[in-house]
Amino acid sequence: MDLGTYIEYDGRPAVRFQRTYAHPVERVWRAVSDPAELAAWFPSQVRLEQRTGGTITFTGDPYAEDETGTVLVYDPPHRLSFTWYDDVIHLIVEPMDGGHSSLTLVDVLDEAQAAARNASGWFVCLDELATLLEGRTGAGPHGEGAVPWEPVYEAHVQAGLPSGVEIPDAAPRT
């Protein structure tokens, strides 16, 4: 299991994931920046003004209220950063040999105790992103076919990621 790691980012607690995909940068960029593609793997539906300083709106997450954030960095095809509730999300796409790409996702947390919970959610989301990039139809991170987050959460806690924040009641999977 390729778990997230707990780090400090600009002096704040954060969780970090790095994944490699057998796709060029432009394909991975589209998956992480196009609202139609984000719908397949991101926890919310997203409307995104594709510019630094633009608005990003999150709706439809069964575990969270709708929210509007700010696009902090929009630098295609390599970097997208935005506020998401009280967190800051960084998505960094870099080329690798053989036409592959590396995606680094960093969730800068509002509080350290959210690390295990958020890392578990991102683990599930990144699994759905891999499904999308493989050309298969996924269930989305809240769908019945998604990786169950509970064992992933326990693995993150066992790995030493801070925990203890409230975990929303499980919404029915669709």
Keywords:
single chain; alpha+beta; 24% helix; globular
Tell me about this structure:
The chain contains four helices and eight strands, in the order ββααββββββαα. It has a single domain, classed as START domain (Alpha-D-Glucose-1,6-Bisphosphate, Chain A, domain 4, 2-Layer Sandwich), CATH 3.30.530.20. β5 and β6 form a beta hairpin. It is an alpha+beta fold and 174 residues long. An eight-stranded antiparallel β-sheet has the order 1-2-8-7-6-5-4-3. The two termini are 25 Å apart.
| The CATH homologous superfamily | START domain
Order of helices and strands: EEHHEEEEEEHH
Q: Class by helix and strand content?
A: alpha+beta
Remind me, CATH topology? Alpha-D-Glucose-1,6-Bisphosphate, Chain A, domain 4
CATH C-level class is Alpha Beta
Strand count, sense and barrel status of the largest sheet are: 8 strands, antiparallel
State the share of residues found in helices, binned by percent.
10-25%
Number of helices: 4
- Overall shape: it is globular
Average pLDDT score: 94
Distance between the termini: 25 Å
The CATH architecture comes to 2-Layer Sandwich
- Indicate how many domains the architecture comprises: 1
